[in-house]
């Protein structure tokens, strides 16, 4: 459905001198070493056991995170720290796959020739995002792969206008723009997961019966039977996040949904199922791994991850999704509602790591930088 990356997206490097300079990032640059040290210090809490695990433990074959086809990383949309940690995680996964690819081919990591994970190997990592739709895929591919002088990748303002950011998403551009630049430099293809916002709003007002014909033709089966998901949806409309999450572990035997919210709930399920379907179609068509970035409500296990897995099973090719939810609060969520929690507050939490990354960005702004230093 989505197909491979456009021609010209090859990550095979043709200019030895250019690549030799970029390869400097792997071993010698002190600012890059700072990023590697921060990645070594990231702790994820196992969502079932509550055990704190270092990120490097999870980036090895056989681990739940490493082996996943789809890695869903949540965000609070206006949190710069959440977005910085997403970029740090994407870079850590891509870098680990790069090292393993080179090792498997008997090529030194700093060699000026050889493949990178992007586009030319099964280790490729793409980034799926909630804030763009399938219809925008040509625009997203132009950002990453069009190297022409006047192409969309030539200036942030051109891409911002072409993707209609201020109408389609409208959150603070400065929080999201670093991701787009990061993906450009690292050749992470960006995949628009969503359907147009107006379609979601139409269903929210009139239910699935009001869905336009073009949408009906693209709809995956919508599972509206998950009562715990329905209760979580309603709870999050009327109570603080931590209270709603705490109730996710309770039985639903004596709970009943509010019929007046049926249309809104159908829109929420449409949202999750459609994004899960886009992610599955990409992985089936192209392969590799997809890191999906979406609001936290979409990445609890009962949302995109489990819907992705059910769709894959129905298609005859079981696949695995893993979820990482940024978490601020004294009490952890009930066991099993997320695979991993990224503690953002407290000593060593994501907020403090993100502050170090922001300080590095400011320190290196306007100076020669060795990717990824100063871009995360």
Structure description:
By secondary structure, this protein is of the alpha/beta class. The protein has one domain: Rossmann fold (3-Layer(aba) Sandwich). 48% of the residues lie in helices and 12% in strands. The protein contains 17 helices and eight strands. It has helices spanning 16-27, 30-41, 55-58, 64-67, 80-104, 137-145, 156-162, 165-168, 173-186, 197-206, 213-218, 227-238, 241-246, 262-286, 296-299, 304-314, 350-364; strands spanning 43-46, 52-54, 70-75, 125-133, 190-194, 289-295, 321-327, 340-343. It has an eight-stranded mixed sheet, with helices on both faces. A hairpin with a 5-residue loop joins strand 1 and strand 2 (52-54). Helix 5 (80-104) runs parallel beside helix 9, helix 5 (80-104) packs across helix 17 and helix 14 crosses helix 16 (304-314).
Mean pLDDT across all amino acids: 89
Quickly count the helices: 17
Strand order in the sheet with the most strands: 2-1-8-7-3-6-4-5
Amino-to-carboxy terminus distance: 31 Å
Number of strands: 8
Q: What share of residues is helical?
A: 40-55%
What is shown here, in short?
InterPro entries: Cofac_haem-bd_dom. This protein has helices at residues 16-27, 30-41, 55-58, 64-67, 80-104, 137-145, 156-162, 165-168, 173-186, 197-206, 213-218, 227-238, 241-246, 262-286, 296-299, 304-314, 350-364, and strands at 43-46, 52-54, 70-75, 125-133, 190-194, 289-295, 321-327, 340-343.
